[in-house]
Structures are given as C-alpha cells and as structure tokens.
Amino acid sequence: MPSSASPSTHRVTGSEPVGPYTLLRLERGGLDPGNPGQFFMLEAPGRLLPRPFSLCLAPPGELAFLVDPIGPGTEALCGLGTGDEIAVLGPLGCGYRLDVDRPLLVGGGIGIAPLPYLAEKLGGSPPVVLGFRTEEHAEAAALLPGAEVAVDPVVVTELIGPGFDVMACGPEPMLHAVAALCPTAQLAWEAPMACGYGACYGCVVEIDGALKRLCLEGPVLDAHRLNGHVRYLVPAESAGAVSR
Question: C-alpha distances in angstroms, 66 versus 114, 213, 230, 243?
Fold first, then answer.
C-alpha cells in the first residue's frame, strides 16, 4: 500500500493507438513507477469506480498505460486528450521478482501491458513470446521489438522452451496452462477491484482453499502456490489490468 491512500491528479501528455488498444501517457509528477507487475488505480472520467492498470512504460517524466476499450470505463480513459486530468493512485500490490537467471516473458492479448516495463527493468533484452487473437491485436507486439508472436489458432504456450524463468501475464486460461507447464513461473492475475489496497475486499479470490485479497497478495503470484487452482468469488473482468 502507498504511504497515502489518496490519489493524486495527473495531466494527460498524449495517447496513441497500438492496434486496437490505446497507450495512455500521463505526467509522472511525484509518483514512483514501482516494480514491474504492480498496478495503479486510474479514475475514469464520469465513472464511479477507478480501474486497475499495470504500468506499461516509464519514460522520463511520464507513466504510460495500455488500455483495452472494452467497456464504459476503459472507453472513457481511451477518450482522454492531451491536457485532460485524471486521478491516479499507486503503485500498489506485489510485482515480479527480478532476481531470475533466464527470464522469459510470456504475454497473452492485453496481458502484454506490463511486459515492456518488465523487460526494461530486467535489462539485456530478455526473450519474449506473445499470443494474440488476431493480427490486429498482434500489432501491440511492436511494444516489445524482437518478440516471437503466435496468432490464433497457435497458442503462446507452444513457444515456451524448457529451462526458462517464466514471467507471464494474460487471460486466466493461458495462466493456468503456463502454470501447468512451468511450475516455477511468476504469473500476474487480475480480479475486479474498487480500491486497490485491501479495504473493499472486491478482489478476494480462493487460492488453495484460502481467501486472499489479490491486490495485496498479488497480482503476481508464484505458480507453485496455486496447485492448478484459483477460484474467483466475483467473475474477473478483462479491463486491462492489473494488467490493464
């Protein structure tokens, strides 16, 4: 949890299309970009509740978030223009552990969102494999030059070789498949969130029979903690985040 649970206001410095997604850029102000895999709560204009998004890029003076316009909240965020202001809270949650020997970044769809910042923090251009539903969605692979890309009906797990420290983000079926294939993987999950710091209990999930708040325990979890089972008490949304 941040030192204050109060959001700060930030000006939009620009937005640009990335395939069907929008890369929303905000002035950083005093916000720390945090660790890859952590997330920020962005207050969409005209919407009652903020939305959680993992940080995609952290260029000097900015924070950039990849947004998938799938509902009123994310559409409102994608409609913001340069100079508009929104409230932001973060960084929140637990991100990826970076002390790995042979990282392999694995993303599915909008799950690509935290991987560019993760690749930057790891350094050395780690290998990346990405899976998308369509060629249009696969345009987002431009955020990770050199990535190996699979487009449906090919699945991204077919691109995962042995011996890597897998760090993944994507839809729930993909994460379960990665966990089965790579028991030591680090997996970024998502769940509905209203606060982002444990007060609302909106993101409670059942992990191995115990109830956990994903915003505090995660969103990044070690695959071996799951034993193949994560049950959402509230259906998870694909709102780009915590990923997105």
Answer: 8, 24, 25, 9
